[in-house]
Specification:
Elements: H1 3-9, H2 50-62, E1 67-71, H3 74-82, E2 90-94, H4 99-108, E3 115-119, H5 124-130, E4 135-141, H6 153-162, E5 166-170, H7 175-178, E6 188-192, E7 206-210, H8 213-226, H9 232-242, H10 245-264, E8 269-273, H11 283-289, E9 296-301, H12 306-315, E10 320-321, E11 331-333, H13 345-350, E12 358-361, H14 367-379
Parallel strand pairs: 2-3, 2-4, 4-5, 5-6, 10-11
Antiparallel strand pairs: 1-7, 6-7, 8-9, 9-12, 11-12
Helix pairs in contact: 2-9, 3-4, 5-6, 10-14, 12-14
This protein binds pyridoxal-5'-phosphate.
Length: 380
């Protein structure tokens, strides 16, 4: 099945009891048993819910995995993944990652003895040297947030596999439509489904997708034992969002290409970060591992101050000033004070996350309006 068919059909059957075409929202906490232990596969809704099961089957298909396990948020999904490790183990992560992921690694898991180090993964040889005896997992974001660096998933997974280390790719920024890390050698893929999968900025949700049955059963155990499960209504909303994932992401990527070109030509813009630009250092790798170059664009202003950035951020009308990304509406954000405020200033400056860096999440609006009415006016 091709992607545009999978989003509609994979794991989705009309409801057997009524024929309802849309997956029903099974708003129940428990299920009647015929006799003790005799049931239809559903006992208690933390453990199983049919709406969630449909979504999990669909997500597994979208990422070419065998199993998906859903959680109440992207960070709850990450928490379950890190709980696969033991005290004394170490996570080696990309050094430019979502602020909430950084915070969870450093301020939650570290307290329980799981250490984290943050390194550049541009060079697989340097990465191999950075791996220590205690390293048990590589944590990768690509494109990275908010600098939009590209990491060669296949090359990094090869290094990890040689050393017997698990690789997890946070695929939130690309979405399964653009990139499928399991095909490139990753062991786990995770999503903040809050973003492109949901796509309408109306739900918080997370998922992990794997091929290995042992990893799947460990994650299912954690899903039930820790209990950070999504409600059925949230699962329904993600299922509904996914049906148009390919159409939305396709259009958003087209908009991103046009906006990146416009920003590059504007005198007040110092630098544009977008993997679709031929001069972007990760352009060739992105071309190899992604279907399109994504719908996130970051840029720096000539005058690198918070005040200048603030003027632009307050002046746009169509681009809403807000955290998050991946919805149908275009958003504008200031990583230094918003998504990445939990990362110390020295750390973020090191990776190029300056005080004037602005991040755009392109939506599916008409791009002429986004450029001419909004960005041009705000920059001028
Ligand atoms: C938003 C986001 C998360 C966290 O997901 P939540 O659903 O907000 O918990 C993790 N990784 C990336 C790349 C994100 O953008």
């Amino acid at each position: 099945m091709k992607f545009g068919t999978k989003v509609i059909h994979a794991g989705i059957e009309p409801d057997p009891s009524t024929g309802a075409v849309m997956t029903p929202i099974f708003q129940t906490s428990t299920y009647a048993q015929e006799a003790p232990g005799k049931h239809k596969g559903y006992e208690y809704a933390r453990t199983q819910n049919p709406t969630r099961s449909a979504l999990e089957a669909n997500l597994a298909a979208l990422e070419n995995g065998n199993a998906a396990v859903c959680f109440s948020s992207g960070l709850a999904a990450m928490d379950a993944i890190i709980r696969l490790l033991n005290p004394g183990d170490e996570v080696l992560s990309t050094n430019d990652l979502y602020g909430g992921s950084y915070r969870q690694l450093v301020r939650v898991h570290q307290r329980y003895g799981i250490e984290s180090r943050f390194v550049s993964m541009d060079d697989p040889e340097k990465l191999a040297q950075a791996i220590s005896e205690r390293t048990r997992m590589l944590w990768i974001e690509t494109p990275t947030n908010p600098m939009l660096n590209i990491i060669d998933i296949e090359a990094v997974c090869r290094v990890a596999r040689e050393k017997g280390i698990l690789t997890c790719v946070d695929n939130t920024f690309a979405s399964p439509y653009l990139q499928n890390p399991l095909d490139l050698g990753a062991d786990l893929v995770t999503h903040s489904a809050t973003k492109y999968l949901g796509g309408h900025s109306d739900v918080v949700h997370g998922a992990v997708i794997v091929r290995d049955e042992q990893l799947a059963s460990q994650l299912r155990f954690l899903q039930n034992a820790v209990g950070a499960v999504p409600g059925p209504q949230d699962c329904f909303l993600i299922l509904r969002g996914i049906k148009t994932l390919h159409l939305r992401v396709e259009r958003a990527c087209e908009n991103a290409v046009r906006v990146a070109a416009f920003l590059q030509s504007h005198p007040k813009v110092k630098k544009v970060y977008y993997p679709g630009l031929p001069e972007h250092p990760g352009h060739a790798i992105a071309q190899k591992q992604m279907r399109h170059f994504g719908a996130m664009v970051s840029f720096d202003l000539q005058e690198d101050t918070f005040e200048q950035a603030s003027k632009v951020l307050s002046a746009t009308q169509l681009f809403t000033l807000a955290e998050s990304l991946g919805g149908v509406e275009s958003l504008i954000g200031h990583p230094a004070t918003m998504t990445h405020a939990s990362i110390p200033r020295e750390e973020r400056i090191k990776v190029g996350l300056t005080d004037s860096l602005i991040r755009l999440s392109l939506g599916v609006e008409d791009v002429e309006d986004l450029i001419d009415d909004d960005l041009r006016a705000a920059l001028d």
